[in-house]
C-alpha cells in the first residue's frame, strides 16, 4: 500500500446543513469525473473528522459565520431561521422544498442570493460608523473594502457577492481617482477579472444570472427611463415605475437563462418584486442591525427579532398569494438557438437580423410540430402524459395530494382526465384506475404508436448500464383492443 499525495480541486456536497467554512475536513470516499465543464471532479463520501482551520483567515471566517448562525438560531423560529439565514448569508438550500417552490413560482427566489443589495447595506453600516472617525477618505475606503472582503468570505465567496464587491471596489476607486467611469465599463472589467481568475465561471449558473441581471439593468433601464419615467410628474408614481422598470430590466435579461436551465418563466415577477423586495430589504437591514446589537445586548436583539419574524411571516404570506395565482409561472421549452438570438436584440446593428432569424426559426419549428405527438413529463410526484387530443393522464404511486397538486400546477395543468394511482387522491373528470403498490409497465399504446418494454429492462445512468431480467413479467397474448398492461408480477390489470 502506498500513500499518494495529489492536489486537485474537487466539489463535495454534504446532506447536513452545518458550517464548514474555514475548517479542515477529513473525507473518506472516491473522486468521480463529471460531464460538466465547470465541475470536473466530484468527491462522494462521508465526513469522518473536522478540525478548525489552521490559517488565521479561516478561523476568523468560521468564527464570524458561526456567531451569525448561532445568534439567528437563538432569536428566530425554525422556519424563520432558515429564511433569515438565507437572506443574510445567501443560499436557498436550508429552505423546505414547499417553501422554496413558493418563492420560485412567485419569482422572488433571487432575494436569497447575496448580491449588490447586501453589499450596499454593509457599505452603509461601515460608512455610517466611519463618519465619526477623523481619517482620510482613502483610509475609509480601504476599511470598507476590507469589511466587504470579510463578508464575501463569510458568505462562501458566491459569484453574486464577489461580483458586487469587485464592482464596489472599482466604482469607489474611480471616485477616489476622480474618474468618470461608465457602469458598463465597470461590469465588463469585473467580468474579465472573474474569467482571468477562473475561466470555468462562464459555465456557472449563478454567475450567468448575476451578470445578466446587471447587464439588463444597465442596458434596458436607461431606455425605459428616457421613454416613460421622465414623463411622469407625480413622485409616488415615478417611484413605483422606477422600481418596476429595474425589476423588468433584470427579469427580461435573465429570462432566456431561466427558460434554458429550468424551463420556467415567472410571469408575475415584476409585480411581486414590487412588494416583496422592499419588505426583504427592510428585513435584511434589521437582520444586520440585530446581529450588531446582539453583540452588546441580547434582550434588545430579541425585541428586534420579533419585528423580523413579523416581516418574514408577511414575506411568506405574500409569496404564497402570488404563487397561488394561476399561470404565475409558465413552463416553456424553447430552442437554445432562439434564446441566444434574444440577446442579439440588445445590439442595434444585429437587432433586425436577430428578429428575422427568430421569426424564420419559429415558423420552421411550428411546421415541424404540426404532427401529433405525445408529451411525457416525469417528476418526483409521478408521470404526466398529455395526448394530442388534449387529454391529461397522470400516473403515480404516491398518496400525497399536495405533491400531485404542486407538480400539476408547475405544468400548468388545471384538470386531469385520467388518474392511475394507488388511491383516488385527486379529482378526475373521466376515470380513475387503481394501481398496485409495485408497478411494472409492459406496453403503452397511443393511437398507432406503441411503446414496448423489451424482455430485459436496461437502466442507463451516464456510463453505467444495469440490466434486469424480465422474470417478474407474465406474458399475455395481444388482444385487439388492448392498450397496455399493468402488473406487479402477480395480478394483472388491463386497460383499453
UniProtKB/TrEMBL annotation:
<keyword id="KW-0472">Membrane</keyword>
<dbReference type="Pfam" id="PF03772">
    <property type="entry name" value="Competence"/>
</dbReference>
<feature type="transmembrane region" description="Helical">
    <location>
        <begin position="236"/>
        <end position="262"/>
    </location>
</feature>
<keyword id="KW-0812">Transmembrane</keyword>
<keyword id="KW-1003">Cell membrane</keyword>
<feature type="transmembrane region" description="Helical">
    <location>
        <begin position="102"/>
        <end position="135"/>
    </location>
</feature>
<keyword id="KW-1133">Transmembrane helix</keyword>
<feature type="transmembrane region" description="Helical">
    <location>
        <begin position="300"/>
        <end position="319"/>
    </location>
</feature>
<feature type="transmembrane region" description="Helical">
    <location>
        <begin position="353"/>
        <end position="371"/>
    </location>
</feature>
<feature type="transmembrane region" description="Helical">
    <location>
        <begin position="207"/>
        <end position="224"/>
    </location>
</feature>
<dbReference type="InterPro" id="IPR004477">
    <property type="entry name" value="ComEC_N"/>
</dbReference>
<feature type="transmembrane region" description="Helical">
    <location>
        <begin position="268"/>
        <end position="293"/>
    </location>
</feature>
<feature type="transmembrane region" description="Helical">
    <location>
        <begin position="141"/>
        <end position="171"/>
    </location>
</feature>
<feature type="domain" description="ComEC/Rec2-related protein">
    <location>
        <begin position="87"/>
        <end position="345"/>
    </location>
</feature>
<feature type="transmembrane region" description="Helical">
    <location>
        <begin position="183"/>
        <end position="201"/>
    </location>
</feature>
<feature type="transmembrane region" description="Helical">
    <location>
        <begin position="325"/>
        <end position="346"/>
    </location>
</feature>
<dbReference type="InterPro" id="IPR052159">
    <property type="entry name" value="Competence_DNA_uptake"/>
</dbReference>
<dbReference type="GO" id="GO:0005886">
    <property type="term" value="C:plasma membrane"/>
</dbReference>
<protein>
    <recommendedName>
        <fullName>ComEC/Rec2-related protein domain-containing protein</fullName>
    </recommendedName>
</protein>
